[in-house]
Write a structure and sequence with these properties.
By secondary structure, the protein is mostly helical. The longest helix has 21 residues.
């Protein structure tokens, strides 16, 4: 796939500058990163060929009796604090343990149904740490919330609610309407939400979480889902490293990633740009919608390629991939071409370690 195609996909559709040093098939002298075009295509074809579970959409976005406005507001609050969720949120539904984003989203939706006033824009504009924990543990599935930064998360929620009240009279649907239900362009949702507290990540992972979840709710029809920006979070970056879709040639960076040591903000930004580019190449090569590829890759990395990669352990870490795909979660669908399947150096790679509110 030509550099020009990659540049178009990243700059015009994603709405942020292209890192011209990280191109498919070429290396970055500065960061030592290279996108392996062939493996990205194999990744896309592998995910495109996997059957979808009947409950795929509901795994991404649970069914809710809320009105569209109440649903979208709850989604907005949950997405704004969807960062560093590991170990922070945990609960249970019908005997199944739910964690992280799965819990956070369901708890916020449940609070909106059970006690709507507690998550109104007016309440959120004044919310404190204790009230946030109360909102998230009110859930019918009995949750545990352990936040070391609850003061900061409630600050984000207060500022976001104030932004919504000031600019849109507290109406979340007005944000979508002002964007014309478009993602890209100067007035699209990606630009619109850049001004919103909690959504100022230059690579807009949280906006993509909101868009992807809203898309699979089947409540909203975005006019340009092809402009969806892949969510470059830690699960996705780890999967792209281990499969060999992104190759790290810089010895120092490679060593720090394997040892789970801190990386610089510039290194982390370059890795995220490469991850977004690799996902777009994979979706193009599938072919498979970018949002669908992103959801499946995230679930795969979370379930099959984390602490004990299933290719060597035969023991999945999580059930997300099985529930979304219906595929056997004791066998990796990338086994025939994944670098990490046969090379321990690739299997030893981890996502970048950095303190961030972006993901």
């Amino acid at each position: 796939m030509a550099e020009a195609l990659y540049a178009i996909m990243v700059s015009e559709k994603c709405g942020f500058p292209v890192d011209m040093t990280v191109m498919a098939g070429s290396a970055s002298v500065e960061t030592g990163l290279r996108i392996d075009e062939a493996r990205c295509v194999w990744l896309g074809k592998a995910l495109a060929s996997i059957p979808r579970a009947a409950r795929f959409d509901e795994e991404v976005c649970p069914a809710s009796s809320l009105s569209d406005e109440d649903f979208l507001r709850a989604l907005l609050w949950a997405t704004a604090i969807c960062h560093s969720t590991k170990g922070a949120f945990r609960g249970e539904i019908d005997g199944r343990e739910i964690k992280g984003w799965d819990y956070l989203l369901r708890a916020m939706l449940d609070a909106a149904e059970a006690a709507p006033q507690s998550v109104s824009p007016e309440s959120m504009s004044q919310i404190g740490p204790g009230a946030l924990v109360a909102v998230l543990t009110r859930a019918k599935f009995g949750g545990k919330v352990e936040l070391s930064d609850s003061a900061r998360r409630t600050q984000i929620l207060r500022e976001l609610a104030q932004w919504l009240l000031h600019n849109f009279d507290g109406t979340a649907l007005a944000v979508f309407r002002q964007a014309g239900y478009r993602l890209a362009g100067d007035e699209g949702l990606y630009v619109e939400l850049r001004a919103a507290p909690g959504f100022q990540d230059p690579y807009q992972k949280k906006t993509s979480v909101l868009v992807g979840t809203a898309h699979y709710s089947h409540r909203f029809a975005f006019r340009d889902m092809g402009s969806f920006i892949p969510m470059a979070d830690y699960h996705v970056m780890r999967a792209l490293f281990r499969t060999g879709c992104i190759v790290v040639s810089a010895p120092s960076l490679s060593k720090r990633l394997k040892l789970q040591l801190s990386v610089s903000s510039d290194e982390e930004a370059s890795i995220r740009r490469a991850a977004i580019g690799a996902c777009r190449l994979a979706a193009y090569g599938g072919p498979i919608p970018t949002v669908e590829l992103n959801m499946l890759l995230w679930a795969h990395a979370r379930s099959l390629c984390r602490h004990r990669p299933v290719c060597v352990s035969m023991q999945p870490d999580h059930d997300s991939f099985r529930l979304m795909s219906g595929a056997d979660d004791e066998e990796c669908p990338f086994a025939t071409w994944c670098r990490g399947r046969t090379d321990g150096e690739f299997r030893a790679m981890w996502e970048p370690r950095i303190s961030t509110e972006y993901y």
